[in-house]
Amino acid sequence: EVQLQESGPGLVKPSQSLSLTCSVTGYSITSNYWGWIRKFPGNKMEWMGYISYSGSTSYNPSLKSRISITRDTSKNQFFLQLNSVTTEDTATYYCARCWRYWGQGVMVTVSS
Amino acid sequence: DVVLTQTPPTLSATIGQSVSISCRSSQSLLHSNGNTYLNWLLQRPGQPPQLLIYLVSRLESGVPNRFSGSGSGTDFTLKISGVEAEDLGVYYCVQSTHAPWTFGGGTKLELK
Q1: What residues of A are in contact with residue B100 (Cβ under 8 Å)?
Q2: Tens digits of per-residue pLDDT, B49-74?
Q3: Closest-CA residue in chain B for A99?
Q4: E-strand stretches of chain A
């Protein structure tokens, strides 16, 4: 059974970096594509980016140079870093093997 | 970016009623490889999104066959033939033909 689990702080201060980990079991991250998606208060969903089986990445241009997705294949984990956060980055963050397998999500609030 | 317009934003239904959700794209979702990467997700309250339909009309394993998808090019439809209580939540169309991948605004299915 494929399982994904996000972890990381639920509160981040403005201008700081948001860092999340996605731990995957039951499937190697050296296969397929692994992404981060966020859901804002309300219904809006945004695809943030992915890291591929080879380690290549693709990001949503709306996040410009603030985002980085990396991985540790030895631990079967991949990571999200979002820099210079503002209150507009307050959302529930999901990791996923788009679109079939999803983590439960972690709510992140940006506030001082 | 591809804009996906979902209608209606809210849908009220009785148990057993058949309903449809429309998803219209600002450009064709037909990929150069011949596939159309249009998917439908359901997010129940407090749960991560669940894949219902992929590649326009392919039913995800374990999803009841009262769900069906259709369409081509820029116009797509999700139909539920006989709503059940467990179907309540927010439905999203999402495309992964063109980068950045984008979501529709969501359709909330409620009980009348």
Answers
A1: 47, 59-62
A2: 999 999 999 999 999 999 999 999 99
A3: B51
A4: 3-7, 11-12, 18-25, 33-39, 45-52, 57-59, 67-72, 77-82, 91-97, 101-102, 106-110
